[in-house]
Amino acid sequence: MRGNGRLIVVSPGSGGSPWVHSDLARALVESGFVVAVPSTGGDNYKDLSAVGPESWKRRPAEMSRANRRCGTGSALRPASRARQGRHVRHVRGRAHGAEPRGRPLVAGAIQGYCEAHIAEDFYSCVGLATRLNGDFLDGMKKTIALAVIRWRFEDATLYAHADRASPPIVAGVPYAADFDMGSLAAPRVPLALVTARQDKWLLPRFHSDRVLKACAACERLGDFPSGGHGALLSPLPPGRSGVGAELMNDPPGFDRSALPGMNRRIAAFFRKHLLP
Predict the structure, then answer these.
(1) Could you tell me if residue 127 is left (phi over 0), alpha (psi between -120 and 50 degrees) or otherwise beta?
(2) H or E stretch at 196
(3) 219 and 82 share a domain?
(4) What is the pLDDT of residues 229-270, one digit of tens each?
(5) Total domain count for the chain?
(6) Is residue 1 assigned to a domain?
(7) pTM strictly above 0.70
(8) How far apart (Å, rounded) are the C-alpha atoms in residues 193 and 221?
(9) Which element (helix H / strand E) includes 114?
(10) Can you list the pairs that 158-161 forms with residues at least 24 positions away whose Cβ atoms lie under 8 Å?
(11) Which of the residues 105, 106, 189, 247 has an alpha carbon 20 to 30 A from that of 60?
(12) CA-based angle 115:117:122, to the nearest 5?
């Protein structure tokens, strides 16, 4: 079957793997798109050496470079005809893989955010490093976490990336603490979101709800009322344990039969904005 000549680049979340996006990629391919799922240097499941601000600042340019290379490379040129589309992002994938033009990344904003919300939104500030157990050690963990955050997130510089292709974007369970929400008042590209009410890693009231409130023009493709942070991903391997499993595994009662329909809506969003 001949494709539609458009390329979609899927950006995994921090520390992510391309394989957990296989169901989405399949749905996009079935809709005629060429799909690329590049790894972010130093911020993928094989290499965590640059997770954090350095990775977040580089990621938009990396996604743009992947877009150009796949669109013009000899192996894919007949399929993609160098017609550039994209992006789909999953977070811990923060909403940062080739942002709407002019939407600035402010890594230093995380410091103020976490100082205000470390107890309520611990995992978005700390990630998988440790968990709160409700015991006498929790206070020490929060104190140490804030000391590390003040050291790592002191850069108040605005970082922005303008992509000449001006692609439509779908953001899954986006992170909100390190971006200027005001810049979303009038996004320069079509922007859609998928949210999950039971997300324990990026609590909706602090993240996806803030993005939706700031971006009246954003299209909400759907919400998983009983879905967690991994709701958009292909099924994860069974038997996982630890903090990662606690934050990424499906909550009790989540029905994965809703995922194919969501993937089709994502594909329809791109068809609407990329095809003549």
Answers:
(1) left
(2) strand 191-196
(3) yes
(4) 999 999 888 878 888 888 999 999 999 999 999 999 999 999
(5) 2
(6) no
(7) yes
(8) 6
(9) helix 109-117
(10) 158/104, 158/105, 158/106, 159/57, 159/104, 159/105, 159/106, 159/107, 160/99, 160/101, 160/102, 160/103, 160/104, 160/105, 161/60, 161/61, 161/64, 161/98, 161/99, 161/101
(11) 247
(12) 100
Residue 241 is assigned to a structural domain of this protein: yes
- Joined together, the tokens standing for residue 5 give 């000549």
Residue 2 lies in a domain: no
Span 138-179, pLDDT tens digits: 999 999 999 998 888 877 776 667 666 668 899 999 988 887
Q: List phi, psi (to 5°) of 18.
A: -65, -25
Q: Rounded to the nearest 10 degrees, what angle do helices 109-117 and 138-152 cross at? A: 170
Integer Cα distance of 222 and 146 in angstroms? 34
On whether both 26 and 115 belong to a single domain, the answer is no
Dihedral (CA of 29, 226, 210, 53) sign: negative
User: Is there a contact between 263 and 24 (Cβ–Cβ < 8 Å)?
Assistant: yes
- Contact 27/1 with Cβ under 8 angstroms? no
Indicate if 100 and 113 belong to the same structural domain.
no
Domain extent for 138? 108-156
Backbone angles phi, psi at 21, to 5 degrees: -105, 15
Instruction: Name residue 235's beta-bridge partners.
Output: none
pLDDT tens track for 56-107 = 778 878 888 887 777 654 444 444 443 444 455 544 433 332 333 334 566 6
If asked whether residues 176 and 212 sit together in one domain, one would say: yes
Same domain, 79 and 163: yes
Residue 88 and residue 166 in one domain: yes
Same domain, 116 and 246: no
Instruction: Mark whether 47 and 145 lie in a shared domain.
Output: no
Q: What is the Cα–Cα distance from 182 to 49, expressed in whole angstroms?
A: 31
Is 119 inside a domain boundary? yes
| CA neighbor of 194 nearest in space, from 202, 184, 186, 185 | 202
Q: Name the nearest CA neighbour of 168 among 86, 61, 264.
A: 86
